[in-house]
Amino acid sequence: MIINPSASDEATGKDEYRRNLVSGQSARLLCGYIYASTGNGESTRDGSIQRIAVIHGSQGPGLQHWAKLQKLKEGAKTLNYLAEHGIDSYEALDRRLAELNASVDDSLASIKAVESRIAELNLIAKYAATYRKCRPIYNRYRKSDDKEKFLRGHESEIILFEAAARELKRLGAVPLPAAEKLEAELSELTFCSRRSRALRKN
């Protein structure tokens, strides 16, 4: 269903041109078309609203009947929505669209924040696993009397440990969070992200 609140002025022959234009769009897109034309000083509420449903002649009778029913259903849904939300003018429709756009923007911002936190938690989990794995070797290195010799034998583990420790500090994960707590938060946020995206698709 297309709603076109157009403030189109009147001119000789324009009415027929406009009807043909709307009819062609309706046929091409297989949809209902609500068109509101207003003159100078008139509100959309006072304008002439034409609902044009045109079906291409090359379609079979069954498809034509189905398309007519779908257009009637969509038209009824649109009119019900407008009535339920008190939308009886272009200004009211514009306000409602602004509210919906703001809601969508808030939802997107919320989803992005959740997904950013998920990415951060995945990094923390990765570095935490490396930190825990290499910590015993690093503790032995610190206590070693011959650090150079110990370093030659365990250089990769010590480098990995120090790099993980730096990243965990940068991510604000000091002291190191418990693995169970980290996993629980990650699982909850992942569920919220998937649910939010599913609701947006619907």
Structural write-up:
It contains 5 helices and 3 strands, in the order E-H-E-E-H-H-H-H. Helix 3 packs antiparallel against helix 4 (147-170) and helix 3 (90-143) packs antiparallel against helix 5. Mean pLDDT is 77; it is low at 39-59. With 202 residues, it is mainly alpha-helical.
Task: Looking at this protein, list some descriptive labels.
single chain, 3-stranded mixed beta sheet
Write the layout of secondary structure elements.
Blueprint: E1 2-6, H1 14-29, E2 33-37, E3 48-52, H2 61-84, H3 90-143, H4 147-170, H5 179-201
Parallel strand pairs: 1-2
Antiparallel strand pairs: 2-3
SSE order, one letter for each helix or strand: EHEEHHHH
Low-confidence spans: pLDDT under 50, at least 5 residues? 39-59
Number of E strands: 3
How would you classify the helix and strand content by structural class?
mainly alpha
Strand content: 5-15%
Rg computed from alpha carbons, rounded to a whole number of angstroms = 32 Å
Give the N-to-C terminal Cα separation: 17 Å
Q: Give the overall form.
A: rod-shaped
Total helical elements: 5
The helix content is: 55-70%
Major sheet: order of its strands? 1-2-3
**What is the average of the pLDDT values?**
77
Largest sheet: 3 strands, mixed
Give a short overview.
With 202 residues, the protein is mainly alpha-helical. The protein has helices at residues 14-29, 61-84, 90-143, 147-170, 179-201; strands at residues 2-6, 33-37, 48-52.
